[in-house]
Specification:
heterotrimer; A mainly alpha; B alpha/beta; C mainly alpha; A: mainly alpha; 5 helices; C: mainly alpha; disordered N terminus
Chain lengths: 130, 356, 381
């Protein structure tokens, strides 16, 4: 009995042996990864240490409102060309927050983008919209 | 600008020397008795300390500009009101730094309204040293003015929940903080207000200054006053009531029963309209034509200050928006509510007012 | 100069310019419907532009202050010189690429090139005429002009008006466009070696730490380097900021009593420094001036509305100080929202200057060399 149970458990954790299949458990776990990162993004959103002047993103963007992630990439006047969301986040970090750029794949940048998108869930894509 | 031409047409060269144009909308409706006068209103400066004597330059500049521009108005308004949130975290350096800038106003009298960012560190103790009572009333040229402290909240939240005053202030400072607590006027002030209004005749115009909206607009961001109905009920018997509120950092105006509500702008930064938060239901006061969508590059965009014209006991409000076209929300006697003088019709909106 | 002019003429003769035909980095020239281009109109406009008879002393033309040998400007003059070498308060801007401005003059008091041309003729310190009649009289007496106006506007001598005159001048000015600078060839043209590494770094400063791009706008496939708006960047007004309340009040009174704004801003330094406020009466506009294009900036100094800043490096330092020419100068309260201290390093400042120098179009390259040689050897004579 114990053996069968163990084998069954192992099967669940190890996952199916076929490439393109995934289980309920995996989906939950992977979406939890996202939630964790988005929560980190929320923490950064209210963090006075993100820039150098104690200003936090949440001061102007409560619940990440008015960030319009669904419109990127788009022409961004402040950058002079079509740009992506992370570039505009960097613009905000440099300017109102008087801080330093983050790389596109910096964990903090990814976290903030995750948070922004989570707060905007369900809104239709509108790339290029000013 | 049209207003100036209108104004100049309406005046003769023999009138007061020195007319500054950014002024005075004359309503087409017949003039009733009662003197006209103007007062200036600066609000939500959010002076924020970084460290020591170093403050966020952006917010400092906003307040400095408001003071410098208010000093240019001619004829000079009768008094200035500061609408609350002078400081960001309510500490003495911030309040002192803000007060020093306000001291640059060359006006005799500044009336101050309490904001939550001023209050929750020391419950307004230092504020009182600077500006006196938290709620009070006075009369001016036949109008009864009332200042309320409308950013109080439940006693348990204020006194019992947080280990330190700093923690309490930080929790209230986040607009979207789920640990926050709804604003209210509270029983003590409601009792005071009732007594105060008992001395006032029903046909005396009333203007109420408050930081929170004295109505229920959007709970998530505390665009809200929990006991709004109670306040409105006390004001119900009066013919002409105006409520001016800060806190929202955006243009809003509304009519509820006999009360005309208008918000004021922040000198520091704009806030998004509640609709822009996709995950919560919201409504904007129905008459509001939104302010132009903010241009983040320009630090002063979608910020500003304002002055109010009291005319026949109604408030006409001129928003002075830095680096942006000014907006005027004036009382429309025919319609019985405040209205933008240019953009009320949907076909008269500019693109930045509808393309967010 | 003449060669380039003809080349432009030729391209314009082929019809309205399209993005593909514009000089690299430039958008289509806005051309008003009621004033289409033609070779004859342009030639007539140039003749009028150069004609010194349209002044009270007979020796000042548009070209006096907008000299084609000086990129249609009048460097090194700090403020321009009109009749009898009278000077005023404002630095003469270049005509090159002014076709892309939505308003003319430093304070935007003129809405079009056609309108702008009317003003200097009757300004007491520019051409000094009391009205436009002498211009029309001269034209009507001149057989060549009469023939030209008839060919272009189908109008008889006595029916020639200032509208025709200014339309021709504007048409000529619309050919004075220049792009295809080394920076254009690098940024839009993909030529890796078109500009130095320093200029490339300078462009990065322009976009980021310098914060220049938001007013000196560039777009996806062209760049005019202006947002066509007005900003107070702390030039002129800093020195008089304490007197602004009384000056503004006094000016408004005077304006209400009917003074000529054109004359006031050019003859009185205090009024001039009120900037756009003197034109639109808005508190917003206190001390604000139009964002200048940066194209050919290296050959159109000295800089700012009052010509008060001599070199590009000092211009950058002014911005670096957060809107003050020297670090001790007090920042004024009406400063535009975009201006603040930048904390640029010396290298970043040098790089930014190198970038701006890379915006000089080929037709002015020789002038640029001449100017930089002169400034390098300056003081030796």
């Amino acid at each position: 009995m114990k053996n069968i149970f163990t084998i069954a458990l192992l099967a669940c954790v190890a996952g199916p042996l076929v490439a393109d299949e995934f289980t309920e458990t995996e989906v939950e776990r992977w979406q939890q990864h996202f939630a964790t990162v988005a929560d980190e993004g929320r923490a950064l959103w209210t963090d006075p240490e993100l820039g150098t002047n104690a200003v936090a993103c949440a001061q102007c963007h409560p619940n990440a409102a008015n960030t319009h992630p669904e419109t990127y990439p788009k022409f961004q006047k402040q950058l002079g060309r079509v740009a992506e969301l992370w570039e505009m986040i960097n613009w905000c970090i440099r300017n109102p927050l008087e801080g330093e750029d983050l790389a596109a794949d910096d964990p903090k940048m990814i976290a903030m983008q995750a948070y922004i998108h989570r707060e905007r869930k369900g809104v239709r894509l509108a790339p290029g919209k000013h | 600008m049209n207003n100036r031409r209108e104004f100049l047409k309406a005046t003769t060269t023999g009138l007061i020397a020195g007319m500054l144009p950014v002024s005075l909308i004359r309503l087409a409706s017949a003039q009733e008795n009662g003197p006209d006068f103007t007062f200036a209103y600066i609000s939500d400066s959010h002076i924020q300390q970084i460290k020591g004597n170093n403050f966020v330059r952006n917010w400092d500049q906003g307040l400095k500009r408001a003071v410098a521009e208010a000093n240019l108005l001619l004829p000079k308004p009768d008094f200035v009101v500061f609408g609350g949130d002078l400081a960001q975290l309510g500490n003495k350096p911030e309040l002192d730094h803000g007060a020093a800038m306000l001291a640059g106003l060359n006006y005799d009298k500044v009336f101050a309204v309490m904001g939550e960012h001023d209050y929750y560190l020391d419950l307004g103790e230092y504020w009182s040293e600077l500006y006196g009572e938290h709620y009070y009333s006075w009369d001016h040229k036949g109008v009864h003015f009332i200042t309320l402290n409308s950013i109080l909240t439940y006693d348990e939240w204020t006194f019992d929940r947080w280990e330190t005053p700093e923690r309490r202030m930080n929790e209230m400072a986040g607009l979207d903080n789920p640990n926050g607590s709804p604003f209210m006027v509270g029983k003590k002030q409601l009792d005071w207000l009732k007594k105060d209004l008992a001395e006032v005749k029903n046909d005396t115009p009333i203007v109420v200054f408050s930081h929170s909206p004295l109505q229920k607009i959007f709970k998530n961001w505390n665009f809200w006053t929990e006991d709004a109905e109670a306040v409105q009920k006390l004001l119900e018997p009066f013919d002409k009531v105006n409520v001016i509120y800060g806190h929202v950092h955006q243009i809003q105006y509304n009519q509820i029963g006999n009360i005309a509500f208008t918000s004021v702008m922040s000198t520091a930064w704009p806030w998004p309209y509640p609709e822009s938060y996709a995950l919560a239901e919201s409504h904007l006061p129905i008459l509001t034509v939104p302010m132009n969508r903010a241009d983040p590059f320009n630090e002063r965009d979608a910020t500003g200050w304002q002055f109010m014209n009291m005319h026949t006991g109604r408030v006409d409000l001129e928003f002075n928006l830095y680096d942006n076209t000014n907006r005027t929300v004036a009382w429309n006697d025919e319609k019985g509510h405040p209205q933008d003088t240019v953009h009320a019709e949907p076909t008269d909106r500019t693109l930045p007012q509808s393309h967010f | 100069m003449k060669t380039i002019h003809i080349a432009m003429l030729a391209s314009l003769l082929m019809g309205a310019t399209t993005q593909a035909q514009n000089p690299l980095g430039l958008p289509d020239v806005p051309i008003p419907e009621n004033n289409p281009q033609s070779a004859e109109k342009i030639a007539l406009g140039e003749k009028l532009f150069d004609d010194e008879r349209f002044s009270s002393t007979g020796d000042v033309s548009c070209a006096t202050c907008h000299d084609k040998e000086k990129a249609f400007s009048d460097g090194p003059l700090v403020t321009s010189e009109g009749i009898r070498k009278l000077t005023g308060t404002r630095n003469g801007p270049t005509v090159v690429n002014s076709a892309y401005y939505e308003s003319l003059f430093w304070d935007g008091r003129s809405p079009s090139l056609e309108d702008q041309a009317l003003h200097p003729f009757i300004n007491p310190i520019e051409m000094g005429l009391s009205d436009h009649e002498p211009i029309l009289a001269t034209i009507r007496d001149d057989r060549e002009y009469v023939r030209a106006f008839r060919d272009v506007f189908d109008v008889r001598a006595n029916d020639i008006t200032m509208e025709h005159v200014t339309m021709a001048i504007a048409a000529f000015e619309r050919t004075l466009i220049s792009g295809d600078s080394p920076w254009d060839r690098w940024y839009f043209g993909g030529e890796e070696d078109a500009i130095s590494e320093s200029a490339k770094r300078g462009f990065d400063v322009f976009l980021k730490d310098g914060r220049c791009v938001s007013c000196h706008m560039i777009e996806q496939d062209f760049a005019t380097f202006t947002d066509n708006q007005f900003h107070n960047i702390g030039v002129g007004i800093n020195a008089m900021q304490d007197r602004v309340p009384e000056l503004a009040a006094a000016f408004m009174q005077a304006k209400q009593q009917g003074i000529d704004v054109d004359v006031a801003v050019l003859t009185d330094a205090d009024t001039s420094d009120l900037g756009r406020f003197a034109v639109d009466d808005q508190l917003d506009s206190m001390g604000a001036f139009k964002t200048s294009t940066l194209r050919n900036i290296a050959v159109t100094g000295p800089f700012m509305h009052d010509g008060s800043i001599a070199t590009l490096r000092e211009v950058v330092e002014h911005y670096n100080n957060g809107g003050a020419t020297t670090p001790e100068e007090e920042i004024n309260a009406f400063l535009s929202g975009g201006i603040r201290p930048l904390d640029l390093t010396d290298e970043q400042i040098d790089d930014l200057v190198a970038f701006m120098e890379a915006l000089t179009s080929p037709q002015f390259a020789e002038l640029a060399t001449m100017l930089s040689t002169a400034s390098n050897s300056g003081g030796d004579q």
